[in-house]
């Protein structure tokens, strides 16, 4: 079942985000087979303030491990994280049949 991981940075953590970003991207690249989508969450000025990833995992515990092992998480960037189950209705600009 897919899960949405929605994480917001701690206030004032721009430098920490920049420092951790290369390790974060390498972590995601090594696990891209588990991801349906992902990217930065931006404020109205276009500044990254968090991230959103949709992982296709067996259960919530796997989604928790996915975000918990991310260098952004282990490095202390995130102020809050939500993990929400997701049911596809539309995907890649198309209606998912049978739902």
TrEMBL record:
<protein>
    <submittedName>
        <fullName>YciI family protein</fullName>
    </submittedName>
</protein>
<dbReference type="InterPro" id="IPR005545">
    <property type="entry name" value="YCII"/>
</dbReference>
<feature type="domain" description="YCII-related">
    <location>
        <begin position="1"/>
        <end position="87"/>
    </location>
</feature>
<dbReference type="InterPro" id="IPR051807">
    <property type="entry name" value="Sec-metab_biosynth-assoc"/>
</dbReference>
<comment type="similarity">
    <text>Belongs to the YciI family.</text>
</comment>
<dbReference type="InterPro" id="IPR011008">
    <property type="entry name" value="Dimeric_a/b-barrel"/>
</dbReference>
<dbReference type="Pfam" id="PF03795">
    <property type="entry name" value="YCII"/>
</dbReference>
